[in-house]
Amino acid sequence: MSVLLKEDTGFAHFIAANTKLIAPPHVPEIRLHLAEESLPIWQKTEDELGEMNVPPPFWAFAWAGGQALARYLLDHPHEVAGKPVLDLGTGSGLVAIAAMKAGAASVLAADIDRMALAAVRLNAEANAVNVAATSADLLADPPGAFGTILVGDLFYERDLAQRVMTFIAAAEQVGARVLVGDPARSYFPRDAFVQLAVYEVPVTRELEDALVKKTAVWARRPKTGGKLEG
User: Which pTM was predicted?
Assistant: First the structure.
């Protein structure tokens, strides 16, 4: 799948002009095109798209769950090394880039926000890795053949969380390992997971109402007899 469609090249110019190339505080090995404030970039995104009430530009920030999951992959490369990997709700592409740096055979970054795909391309280039991307809603279809599926900070809405959990259960049935980065969002079903690591992640107070967010990386909890919970 192509990283960026031709008609989306204007998004890349917009992102480059309205962000700074900086390292997320918890993952200094990676540089991303990030916004320094949330409201200005959100307003500019609406102007760029010519629409009102557009979703927040999640691609413009390094969220706590993504930073934790990226950190974990760089410190535990065996989780993705040599495997085909899917990064759900990729946003800036931080987790996808970390997976490639950790030795993944390939990474598909998925996000229904087409501007996020432009951000992924720019950020992958800035970090000298190749990341494929798609704007297809992968949660609407059966999962493909991935060795590891990465979920960074997607449990902030009830309906989305339910769709993600359905997808995860299906993916595990065909052999995928699922890793989640989550800072105790409201709809994260922690009882269905086992904690692998916990970090104190520096974040933006404007987004999180905190300067540091305690954030964990999780794997699915096995059922009795070795089967995984659905």
Answer: 0.88
From start to end of 69-211, where are the E strands? 84-88, 106-110, 132-134, 148-152, 177-182, 193-202
Q: Give how far Cα 30 sits from Cα of 33, 52, 70, 181, Å.
A: 10, 32, 9, 17
N-term to C-term CA, the chain: 30
Does residue 4 have a pLDDT over 70?
no
Amino acid symbol at 108: L
Burial of 95 (0-12, 13-18, 19+ CB in 10 A): buried
pLDDT band at 209 (very low <50, low <70, confident <90, very high): confident
Domain total for the chain?
1
- Residue 40: give the domain boundaries: 6-220
